């Protein structure tokens, strides 16, 4: 055989091909020719000649031929909507976090400045700092509020028409369909063409006003002031209006203040427990012991919740009032009041319908704003000292709810008309019967002549009036007083904006304030934050009421510094009290914590349920919900981590016995429930669950993916089928968050069950051990929220979600029955004073 031909590259045959070696090869033939890069844009001349352009300015061809080189303007690229939305969401989240951190910084600075050296008031150790919690540099704390995602004051404040309220669930949750069937008033509402979910505002409007000097409550639509006396006379111009005995209903002002007979003292004696505040002589009781007792009652029950009045100054004006007007005061008798004090008969004769002011044996009481504040404090002290579970309520007119509604002018038998038993003289007047009404009646008469005042004292008096009338579950009347106070405070804020803003206190400028000016600004701040909480609490449940602009400043106003540290001295300005008081400091820290929690809730209302917030994401999309919820959850949990040790608690702790502590925990768990509720809605209405294992249930109860359980089915944690069916990781995560929401709902519901009970008292089976009436600033809002909690728990129990809940979920049949029982009990305590809660009770009984 001939030898093989020699290889041209035999010396390289043993080496594999290496791409990096080609660049060092001397052979030009082995190179692959590079494909010319096409010009992305050619000038006009090259484009016309269809010639390659080197894209210079000017290009080579135009330079060689001395031509004007111009390029065609490129059309802008169409923006990517998804990218724009993503950038906007990231910017909004970033700005929101910056605002929250700024608020946390101000709140933490305020709380830490009030901490005493004692061990009990030290913050909880080993808590992550704010910067670590949010992973944002310290420099971002000073972010300007102008960069917030909301551009106008109206958008930054609490928005109306949000979908947070409990009654909105009846409309928005398909799983609650049928809960309202058989409720008489709601059936009447549907026939009248109204929406079921608007029943709270409807029944509040129909109940009318409280007749302070008269009997009961009503709209009084046929008293001649709003047209003809009766509907049937509306087309008869010659028909005479009826002349009902108006004094039997609306009453009249006292015409002779020196006579004990101006008041129905026999009625007061027949109801000694329900004395409105009159003494044995029929006048408002101003005895020294009564004044001191009612002031103490106010301080213990109401001032501890909202310390917006200066305690030392309040005590001083009470002492002056006592010296001047108490019949048993040992002070020398003062000179008779001057002519401007409205003493009937001192200047001229008055008609029988003239205004009469409160009177004591020492003389007529001057109708001043200071005396109005004293009278309102007395009224609040009187009603708060009434500890029986059932607070007296206005005696209803004939034709009340049982006969077709609470009485509207549209009804054929209106509650406000003067018919039937309305002239029954045995029925007590409100001023004689309702605790504290004797003081409230005169105080509001004084405030009626102060309309248009814009001082801090006017705002304080209006807040007191709102707090008093709210004790009788009169939401609209309370809101009206609060709204008036809010308007006064908006004026004060705009006049002192620079010195009330947080940046003023973050800097060194506040050091230049005098003690008198600091005291005055603290009064404004305390009144501002009190009004914000009271208004927000009402609007959280009655979302259709128009909000004031007060909440628009919630991210800018400084937190109060504690007006208890100051007292006024003879009008020369305040002096600082250097003596530390542990209880006062704790109250102020509790107050500041409540404020911060309220702001977090308002932000959640707007972002998750507001008119603009709930349109920015798809509530049925888990990712969208997670993106919107996570920020608020992180902020809420960071707030809890920063609480001082005496306010800290564990989730498994029994409900507290202190009212203020119970309010704090109830609001925290309520906020957690509100923020997590979108997850629960998805878990009930969106997720498709596989059928449970046959060993767990006898038969398949669900013909549709999310149909409820049939009545009578009993499911307990012992036979939940979560471990026997296949669930995806996403489904398990959603169920886990839904379980947290359910547990928060239960804890929020029972937070007040041990108030005023002994500290060592047991709490078992969700059975309330509260021994006295629950005294809150907005009892209707609290109980209406508990009503909503029960609707949600019932919907969960009847849904396909329930069998898949983890065992640590507190909800089961026994728990649900116990919660229904305790909710029935507390609703029945207040329902006689509240038509809203009466309908809530009927709905729950129907469920």
Automatic annotation (TrEMBL):
In its UniProt record, a GO molecular function of this protein is: zinc ion binding
Residue intervals of the Zn(2)-C6 fungal-type domain: 42-71
Query: Which PROSITE patterns does the protein's record reference?
Result: ZN2_CY6_FUNGAL_1, ZN2_CY6_FUNGAL_2
Q: Which InterPro entries is this protein grouped with?
A: EcdB-like_regulator, Zn2-C6_fun-type_DNA-bd_sf, Zn2Cys6_DnaBD
Locate the region Disordered: 223-264, 324-361
Q: Where is there biased composition of kind Polar residues?
A: 253-264
The record's annotation in PANTHER family points to:
ZN(II)2CYS6 TRANSCRIPTION FACTOR (EUROFUNG), ZN(II)2CYS6 TRANSCRIPTION FACTOR (EUROFUNG)-RELATED-RELATED
What is the name attached to this protein's record?
C6 zinc finger domain-containing protein
Instruction: Give the organism the record lists.
Output: Setomelanomma holmii
